[in-house]
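Lecture 7 notes: from sequence to structure.

We start with a single chain of 126 residues. Read the sequence below before looking at the structure.
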Amino acid sequence: MIEQVNPDMTTTKTNTTINPITLTDGAVKELNNIRQSEGIPDNYGLRIGVKGGGCSGFSYILGFDDKKDSDQEYDINGVTVYIDKTHAIYLLGMEIDYEQDLNNRGFSFNNPNADETCGCGTSFSA
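Now the structure, written as C-alpha cells:
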C-alpha cells in the first residue's frame, strides 16, 4: 500500500501489485502470435505454473486457459496471466523469454528458485 499526498494536502492510498514473474518483449510477441494463429479466445489468460515430474522433479506449465478460483490474476506487459496461489512460491522472480536462433527455438525459463535444472531447461528442483 502506497500513501500519496495530493496538492490539496489530502492523502490517498493506492494498492500496488508486484508481478511475480517477468515476460520479455520476445515472449510477449510470441504469445500474441500464438494467440492469433491458434484462435485463442480473448477471455483466456496465460496459465503459468508447475507440476510434479520432469527429470529434475518439477516441470513448468505454460498455456492459455480459463481463470480458476485458486488463481491470482496479473497483467504483465499486456498479457493476462493466471498463477495458482500454491505455485507462486516456485515462480517468484522468474523470467520467461522466447528464443529463436540456430541452436534454440522456444520459451526459456530463468528461475532463481531452481536449485537444479535439467539440460532441456523445462524441469527443475527447488
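Residues 1-5, 119-126 have pLDDT under 50 and may be disordered. Keep this in mind for problem set 3.
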